[in-house]
Amino acid sequence: RFGLKTGYSLATQYGITPAGNTYTVDSDNRNGFTGGVFLYIPITESVGIQQEWLYAMKGSRQDVTINGPVSVNTVSEYNLNYFEMPMVLKYRFVKIKNFGIYGSTGIALSLLLNGDYDITSTINMGGPPIVVPESGNMKGLDTFDYSFVYGAGTDFKLLNRDFFFDIRM
After folding, report:
1. Measured between alpha carbons, how far is 36 from 161 in angstroms, rounded to an integer?
2. Do the beta carbons of residue 3 and residue 47 sit within 8 Å?
3. Bridge partner list, 74
4. What is the pLDDT along the chain (169 residues), one digit of tens a residue?
5. How many other CB atoms sit within 10 Å of the CB of residue 13?
6. Ramachandran area for residue 47 (φ above 0: left; ψ -120 to 50: alpha; else beta)
7. Rounded Cα gap, residues 17 and 78, in angstroms
8. Residue 27, SS3 per DSSP
9. Residues with Cβ < 8 Å from 120, sequence gap 6 or more?
10. What integer pLDDT is reported at residue 92 of this predicted model?
11. Are 11 and 58 in contact (CB under 8 A)?
């Protein structure tokens, strides 16, 4: 089977927990779009391989505040766009008429298409705050990325067409 795939991408990064509470880190996600095409090759009625070719928006936002006599707050936003090629093994473990539930696992190879960042630092020394903005292109990142993916989903027929919905990490 060959088809279109589209979805919602929720990407984030997490930092370490600061020692001594001298600073705080709040992480947030980048809400984005993922879409492309896929090829599903059934091996048996319950097992198959799915190859995908996707455009995926990733990134994160961080808000770091250093507390002390001089207070510094830095808000960073990273926007990365990838061409992603996941290959997953799908196993349907429930099938009731035209409805199935499956699990999936595999790898995803990714190529960085472009990326940019926006960083705003605010320094407060007791007087008027000093605001230092910076933005630019993230040319120094590795072009190639890989990851392990896993998830679960459901497939069903609607209006005599095959559909599926899955959640993947």
Report:
1. 18
2. no
3. 64, 121
4. 899 999 998 887 666 666 666 777 778 888 899 999 999 999 999 999 999 999 999 888 888 888 878 888 889 898 999 999 999 999 999 999 889 999 999 999 999 999 998 999 898 888 888 888 899 888 777 889 899 999 999 999 889 888 889 999 8
5. 15
6. beta
7. 20
8. strand
9. 74, 75, 131, 132, 133, 134
10. 94
11. yes
Q: How many other C-beta atoms can be found within 10 angstroms of the C-beta atom of residue 87? A: 14
Quickly tell me which residue has 């705050």 as its tokens.
Answer: 129
| φ, ψ for residue 127, nearest 5 deg | -100, -155
Res 11: pLDDT: 80
CA 10/CA 166 separation, integer angstroms: 14
Q: Which residue has the tokens 């509470």?
A: 21
